[in-house]
TrEMBL record:
It comes from the Bacteria. This is Sulfotransferase family protein. GO terms for cellular component: membrane. SUPFAM superfamilies: P-loop containing nucleoside triphosphate hydrolases. GO terms for molecular function: sulfotransferase activity. The lineage of its organism: Bacteria, Bacillati, Bacillota, Bacilli, Bacillales.
Length: 248
């Protein structure tokens, strides 16, 4: 895996690629306690001069940007991201954007989830969004899945799973040498339907349109399970204990 030196031993830049509605806000709060020179991408994205300056100075870069930001820097880097069950991610995204009165510019009381996933005009917002971020092909809805998988293998030091947040946090803290402590989940979408409350046809449509994301998520789960399988008996015991603590 590329650029895997410890943070304390080099000048590597942590690139946290926050894919929308995958639990990234919670993880960013963890990173804030570890990286004093953390920069939010949205603060500099529209100013290329400032962006390049912060890429040289920051110790961590967090935000909604696709794979590829490392091409603008000439220092060691380490990517990390979180992936989520695509059906859950898309339902959460829909309710966060279109059913959230705190965002009046997109709030739409009349639109339904079924209409959203069946109207192709919305495809660029959500279809295979996770694969698009990981592959770096943000502007297409049918990105290169194999490229995304290769990027996860060769460029990402850490890939967490939203549905297995405690396990992900345990592995990340262990990998980075951080003190392990439970972290509250933030920015959770309120008043959204559960997957089991949605029409079967709607769920099937989401899966069909997001086949690349479904496969990338499955692949990321395999990577996570492999890391857990490689834990020592003592580490596995500590993980089980942490999962119980985090669930309280």
């Amino acid at each position: 895996m590329a650029n895997t030196k410890k943070r304390s031993d080099d000048d590597s830049l942590l690139l946290f690629m926050h894919i929308p509605k995958t639990g990234g806000t919670s993880l960013t709060q963890v990173l804030l306690h570890q990286f004093p020179k953390l920069v939010y991408y949205f603060e500099v994205a529209d100013n290329q001069t400032l962006l390049l300056e912060k890429l040289r100075e920051a110790d961590a870069f967090c935000g909604h940007y696709p794979f590829g930001l490392h091409s603008f820097i000439d220092r060691p880097y380490r990517y990390m991201t979180m992936l989520r069950d695509p059906v859950e991610q898309i339902i959460s995204y829909f309710y966060f954007k279109y059913k959230n009165p705190d965002y009046p510019e997109s709030y739409n009381i009349g639109i339904t989830l079924d209409y959203f996933v069946n109207d192709d005009n919305f495809d660029l917002e959500y279809v295979n969004l996770q694969t698009r971020f990981v592959s770096g092909e943000l502007c297409v809805t049918q990105p290169d899945l194999e490229l995304a998988k290769a990027n996860l293998r060769h460029h990402f030091d850490f890939v967490g799973i939203t549905e297995r947040y405690a396990e992900s946090q345990f592995l990340l803290s262990r990998q980075m040498g951080w003190k392990l402590q439970p972290c509250s989940r933030l920015n959770i979408t309120p008043n959204r339907l559960l997957q089991i409350e949605c029409a079967t046809e709607t769920i099937d449509r989401i899966k069909a349109k997001n086949a690349a994301d479904v496969e990338l998520y499955r692949y990321a789960l395999e990577l996570l399970d492999q890391k857990i399988a490689n834990l020592s008996p003592a580490q596995a015991k500590a993980l089980r204990k942490f999962i119980k603590t985090a669930a309280k």
